[in-house]
Design a protein that fits this description.
2 domains, two-stranded antiparallel sheet, phospholipid metabolism, cell membrane
Amino acid sequence: MDAETTPAPRKPWKNLGVRFASALILFLICVAPFYFGGWLWAAFVVLFSARMSYEWVRMSDKNPTRIAYLFPVLAMAIGGIYAVQGLWVYAGLTVIIAAILGLADRMRRGGGLWAGLGLLYILIPGLTIIGLRGNAVGFDTAGFQTLLYIILIVVAADVGAYFGGSYFQGPKLSPKLSPNKTWSGFFSGLIFAIIIGGIVTNFEFSSFWHGVLMGIPVVLLSVAGDLLESGLKRKLQVKDTGDLIPGHGGLLDRFDSLMMAAVGFTLIIWLFPAAWPL
């Protein structure tokens, strides 16, 4: 076989070192706010949401104004103040009013739907994550343990999909939305994530199998969030939402799965409180 027909060697875990280093730094940045919760965590989430809003405006608005950048940040800050105090009616009204005003501002320049969608897409998960963590300080608090469970499930699903999909490859999961995701990656991520979920709940409050069963919808929601963001990027014809995190892209690229999982998990335990006794 000559040089022209020799296939290039496959690199199953490309950029592994860069991805790991970026994830480690991100973890270290999050530790203190996550531990203390309350106002510190709310400020942290607002800051991250502000960056995600910036990424959204930049990729969805060809001629953004200062208002387009500042308005989502202001709305998230006000909503965060209400959320950390448990004033969810006011937080919800903030989201609705922000989406309407954002849509109205953008309609003057065209594409108003993208502004309204972006505000809902970022504000609702951000406020949900503030609410899930709560105000109590410490590792043994319900908010810490609940949000930790969701985060570990999402991270485990991502890690399992990365290693399993890169190694086994095979049929694509959804080639029209995300050409790099495979069924092998999906099942690898699912298996690894529910095992981690079982271990977490076994230590926290319940049995191993409770964590496994609750982990399944969290994984499905995280995959849905990832595919949704991939579809939005394809629609807007961008590869990544940003380049803030080496090996990962922007914050929206990194947290899309967590955003959907957090909102979906909150809805599940709101409808079925007995499913999560914390």
